[in-house]
From TrEMBL:
Transmembrane segments annotated in the record for this chain: none
An MF annotation (GO) of this entry: single-stranded DNA binding
Top-level taxonomy: Bacteria, Pseudomonadati, Pseudomonadota, Betaproteobacteria, Burkholderiales
Top-level taxon of origin: Bacteria
Pfam families, A to Z: SRAP
GO biological process, one term: protein-DNA covalent cross-linking repair
Protein name: SOS response-associated peptidase YedK
Species of origin: Paraburkholderia fungorum
Amino acid sequence: MCYSAQIQADYRKFVRMFGATMDIHEFARLFFERAEGVSKAKIPKAMEAAFASPQNDAEREIKTLIDRFNAEQSTKLEQELFKQKKRLADAERTLLTKTTRAATESRRIASDKIDATMRRLADLERIDLKPRDSRIFPGSYAPVMVIENGQRVVKPMRYQCRIAGKPASYDVKYPGTYNARRDNLEGFWKQCFGYTHGVMLVDVFYENVSKAKFEGTLSETHARDENVVLEFRPSNGELMHVACLWSRWTAPGKPDLLSFAAITDEPPPEVAAAGHDRCIIPIKPRNIDAWLNPDASNLASLYTILDDRDRPYYEHRLAA
């Protein structure tokens, strides 16, 4: 499973590399629904930063929505900071006269929450981007390139696919639907495979790996289900064009949801040796158009594209 990935979150990368156009309507809808509280969309900071210097009215509208949402978040964080500082002061006053378990615990919790809130405020106000600003997790949004009316188009999509026609409860019932197993493309994913294909640009991916497998030790030497997070990076430093499936989910009285899943397959030897049993599939640039224009009557050709994948060597290390 691709637990997390550091992506190219700026839609302009797709424009420069592929001559793609941005679906400004979908981007505007995403930011509007978040600003209005209609959705709780998790949007990477780097994806917002693409609109920091708007070039037209539509982009200026998006920037206004981003600024409005961030101002509201800042106010909520300031209120939380005030609340926790008061809690800390109350606990410390109590401890001056009597050491109690409740006051000690309240002081610890308040201190932790103050630190966390201050970090979130600093991140919110920070202008310079860091690598983590482009990192997505299941439920996060990312730009995905698709073909629409014969043109390459970039749309914002949630990284956990809810297939059209399925109930919203599938998000909880099938939490692993941010990845689509290759051996199940004609099963669970049959509505998408051969019909709605996309490409995501990925620099680095992360996986949860058993600590025992990673260290090559007996599982008895570790706590049950103890995991570590590994970072996998192509040794050639090249960008990965990751094969995806996507869907537009609609329901009466609900906002449309664009969402996607990255296709995974058996891992290459170095990923398996590190302790993980799945790997995303980076397709070759020459196959992108064929992948984005699938023929449902010729699924064999699509499997051929997945087989004819880019094959970098994945160096790994413990994630910071």
